[in-house]
Amino acid sequence: QVQLVESGGGLVQAGGSLRLSCAASGRTFAFSNYAMGWFRQAPGKEREFVAAINWRGGTTNYADSVKGRFTISRDNAKNTVYLQMNSLKPEDTAVYFCAADGTWRRSTASASATVYVHWGQGTQVTVSS
Prior knowledge:
- The chain is mostly beta strands.
- The protein is built from no helices and eleven strands.
- The chain has strands spanning 3-7, 10-13, 18-25, 36-41, 48-53, 60-62, 70-75, 80-85, 94-101, 116-119, 123-128.
- The strands form two sheets. Strands 2, 4, 5, 6, 9, 10 and 11 form a seven-stranded mixed sheet that branches. Strands 1-3-8-7 form a four-stranded antiparallel sheet, with no helix packed on it.
- It is globular.
- The relative contact order is 0.32.
- The mean pLDDT is 97.
């Protein structure tokens, strides 16, 4: 069984920064072989793609709304993926979820939620104006 646990959310003023972490565990889950993604869901809205990183860490993908402000990275030795969020805006307020791709060593970093088969419970990010 794969567990993804997000942390690092909280309340921050507009213009501030937060760093989200997602720790992966599971006896049969080889974290370093799977792409990882971050998604978010704001109240009353559908879940949307934020960022993704491929298994090697050399390919990343970002939603247009966060390009230049957010950075995704991974530490395979720690089985952890990060999302550094800078210049936060009130519209970034949402529950942020990390997810693990279901395909071994996918070379790309997909924005499609359908390729992600394991999901965390989410962490709340609130940006005040």
